Amino acid sequence: MKHEKYMGYLFEVAWILPSVAIPISVIVAVLITAFAVGIRVPDIAGRIEPKAIAATEPFDEPGLRELAPGKYEAAMVAQVFMFTPNEIEVPVGSEVTFVLTSRDVIHGFKIVGTPVNMMVVPGQISKMRFTFTRPGEYLIVCHEYCGGGHHAMSGKVIVR
Amino acid sequence: MAVIARPRGAVREQVADRFATEKRLAGLNILVAFLALAIGGLMGVLQVLEYNGIDLYRAVKPVLPGGYYQGLTLHGVLNVLVFTTFYIIGFLTLIAAMSFDRPLASGRLAWVTFWLMLAGLLVAAVPILLNRATVLFTFYPPLKADGFYYLGLTLVVASTWLLLVNLALTYRAWRAANPGAKIPLAAFMSIITMTMWTIATFGIATEMLFLLIPWAFGLVPGTDVILARTLFWFTGHPIVYFWLLPAYISWYTMVPRLAGGRLFSEPMARVAFVLFLVLSVPIGIHHQYTDPGISEIWKLVHFIFTVGVFFPSLLTFFNVVASLENSGRARGGKGWLAWIFALPWNEPAFTTQVFAMLLFAFGGAGGVINASYNLNLVVHNTAWISGHFHLTVGSAVALTFMGITYWLVPLITGRALWSRGLALAQAWLWLIGMVTFSHFMHMLGLLGMPRRTMIGAAPYIQPEWQALLPFTLVGGLLMFASAICYYLNMLMTITRGRPEPDQEVPFSRAVSGPEDVPAALDRFTPWVVTALLLVAINYGPTLYYLVSTGRFNITGLSPW
Ligand code: HEM
Ligand SMILES: [Cu+2]
Ligand SMILES: [Cu+2]
Q: How deeply is B169 buried, as exposed, middle or buried, from its count of CB atoms within 10 A (0-12, 13-18, 19+)?
């Protein structure tokens, strides 16, 4: 009995060390990819009045805008069950900042094959940046349930 | 300590079962739970069929006018709100009382709890069935459901608080009769679970009472979406621990006995539970990594605290596996791993729960990805997430709850399990079916397939998804077969089982037991205070910011 307990304590310590080490390594690894490599999640990007979308920059003229050589801003509006515009085209190597808002309910915005993934929320502006280094057609899906036609809501990024 | 049977109140026969009320209530709660799961599970089968181009929604249109999304609302609400909550309240009512070795302080309060929960369920069920609440189980505004949907769900949640009141009163009475004794482990864990849950429900209760209910009934014109989402996830993360901790209670305090051995360490088990109490709530923003309107800094803080929860999870893993090893060796098993074969694999209650643990190990590993801040961008709202939570709530929790009933239903009804063979088949089918289903859901998620989407009807369905979707159907049908085995077995047990009265809850003893528990691990107040403090720190600034900048002007829509 005594011996059993003593061995038990040894095992406990032998397990507790990695139980602390593993979580700490996960934190360190994520901090490196976030702040050294620069893969970040959406931050606060401002509020917007849903009824005044048509009068608020950049959504007054949704679409692609060149900010500087090779740098673009894609302003898109989500509503049941479509994105406006639902297709944008950029040259290979472009850095595109996607800026979105919703006219009605929550929508999702995921560009398949990239880390661009955000919720599009009425009253809020969502913003994320990505550099397209490979040509191709990228599927955009609305990946938050937004009503009966949700599965028809998609778009496209064409990279040439 | 032996208390002579002394029914409360009236003079009754000495032979009366002291726990008759608790048994009745456990039985009724679990009955409601499994009726809900039966309907919810059927909806799951419709979903995997739809994924593969077999659309049965047209055939069931008269009862399910809202089609896929109304079915999905039922699947989510019935499986993870109704099944879990009713089961947990029933299970904890019984085992807390039996662990304290005294009936709950107020049998009447326990009945009131049940009837109020049932009333809430019925109030919420009507709008769902009428296709007036097709907003899924997360009811994110500004999707706008019939107000009674929110009202009913709120009533269910608020009624569960009454169990905490009852447990607290029972604890006080027990303490007066047992000064100086350590709280029995299962009772301690039950109180921790209900305390954590009660703190956690602050979010959803606030969201319902101050935002959604006034808005849905037209008292205010609009709402604030990010504030509502933040309050939802304040509860939405810890709710998974509300589901999981009762399964852990079984793994810690009963499975070792079912396995023929003892719990490895009671102090370590208590450390894990206390940490779950402290760490479960202040990390909910990890569900909102992709949300606008919440600062990146607080997302990062919640990520770091989330990783903190790995620690009690790994402690649990160690302690539970060590207890299994203790059992294997007690049964004559030898070697580094060969003891595994000495375990009672022909015992359904045991095997089912060990399979649940195994599936949970995979779920936990995937969960590390979900939790990891920017890695979450790869999987957020894809089929991966569905694959993940069918391993966690759909297996670790649901399969454990089924496994428990293999001894619990005989205990409540006084009838032996009808067929052990069928029960073992049920466990194996679920294991194989779930591994298949969830593996391919994870893969589909990595290929970008969105969740909560009627994929068979999506114009953009990709050929590489279509190549994998049939496997989700195979897995889903195996799970369905497992469910049929389960329900048939239960039905036959209740109606035809051989009488076998006077069974006991299989509580385990421990290698390192109550005598090794330090006083701090036998108290609640310091841990509750710590938990509340952490919640205030981790949520205070974000909630203050959202409330003070909120515009409450989003009017909403019911587009289904
Ligand atoms: C026969 C067994 C089951 C099958 C075939 C099945 C199938 C599915 C499928 C295909 C989805 C994804 C739907 C979508 O995202 O569009 C889903 C979602 C879900 N399932 Fe299951 N499932 C089963 C059992 C369970 C069980 C036992 C639970 C929990 C106790 C569960 C909980 C959930 C939840 C919470 C969702 C998410 C609902 C939502 O996104 O609103 N499922 N299920
Ligand atoms: Cu949408
Ligand atoms: Cu969570």
A: middle
Tens of pLDDT, residue by residue over B233-267, are: 999 999 999 999 999 999 999 999 999 999 999 99
Rounded distance, CA B121 to CA A19, Å?
41
B341: DSSP letter: G
Q: How far is A39 from chain B (nearest CA, A)?
A: 6
Identify whether residues A155 and A119 lie together within a single domain.
yes
Query: In terms of domains, do A74 and A104 share one?
Result: yes
Distance CA B431, CA B245 (A): 21
Q: Which amino acid is at B267?
A: P
Cβ of A143 within 8 Å of Cβ of B453? The answer is: yes
For residue B263, the chain A residue with the least C-alpha distance is A8
Longest dimension (CA), chain B: 72
Ligand 2: distance of its center to the CA of A140 in Å?
11
Residue B180 burial by Cβ neighbours in a 10 Å radius (0-12, 13-18, 19+): exposed
| B380 given a catalytic annotation | no
The angle at the Cα of A148, spanning A143 to A150, to the nearest 5 degrees, equals: 20
Question: What is the pairing mode between strands A87-90 and A126-131?
Answer: unpaired
A20, A60: one domain:
no
Tally of CA atoms within 13 A in the half-sphere of B311 that contains its CB? 22
Report the atom number in ligand 1 closest to the C-alpha of B42.
Answer: 1
The angle formed by the CA atoms of residues B84, B86 and B89, to the nearest 5 degrees, is 100
Q: Are B262 and B323 in contact (CB under 8 A)?
A: yes
Same domain, A76 and A149: yes
Q: Are B373 and A34 in contact (CB under 8 A)?
A: yes
Residues B28-549: name the CATH superfamily.
Answer: Cytochrome c oxidase-like, subunit I domain (1.20.210.10)
CA distances from B210 to A93, B129, B235, B355, B462 (A): 48, 25, 15, 42, 42
Which residues of chain A are within 8 Å of residue B226 when distances are taken between CB atoms?
121, 123-124
Tell me, yes or no, whether A48 and A16 share the same domain. Answer: no
Instruction: Spell out the residues 6+ positions from residue A88 whose beta carbon is closer than 8 angstroms to its own.
Output: A63, A64, A74, A76, A96, A156, A157, A158
What is the extent of the structural domain holding A90?
43-159
Are B423 and B352 in contact, with CB atoms under 8 Å apart?
Answer: yes
B75 is catalytic: no
Closest of B162, B304, B282 to residue B530, by C-alpha: B282
pLDDT by 10s per residue, chain A, length 160: 567 667 777 877 888 888 888 889 989 998 998 888 888 899 999 999 999 999 999 999 999 999 999 999 999 999 999 999 999 999 999 999 999 999 999 999 999 999 999 999 999 999 999 999 999 999 999 999 999 999 999 999 999 9
CATH number, domain of A103, equals: 2.60.40.420
Based on the domain organization, do A23 and A80 belong to the same domain? no
Beta bridge partners of residue A101, listed in sequence order: A77
SS3 A113: coil
- With CA atoms as reference, report the closest residue to B194 among B310, B54, B311, B85: B85
Residue pair B288/B299 in contact (Cβ under 8 Å)? The answer is: yes
Active site residue B452: yes
Interchain contact, A143 vs B264, CB within 8 Å: no
Claim to verify: residue A23 and residue A59 sit in the same structural domain: no
> How far is A28 from chain B, CA to nearest CA, in Å?
10
With contacts defined as CB-CB under 8 Å, which chain A residues touch B75?
Answer: none
**For the CA of B389, the nearest ligand:** 1
CA–CA gap between residue B457 and residue B464 (Å, rounded): 16
Domains in chain A, number = 2
Q: Are A60 and A106 found together in one domain?
A: yes
The ipTM (two decimal places) reads: 0.93
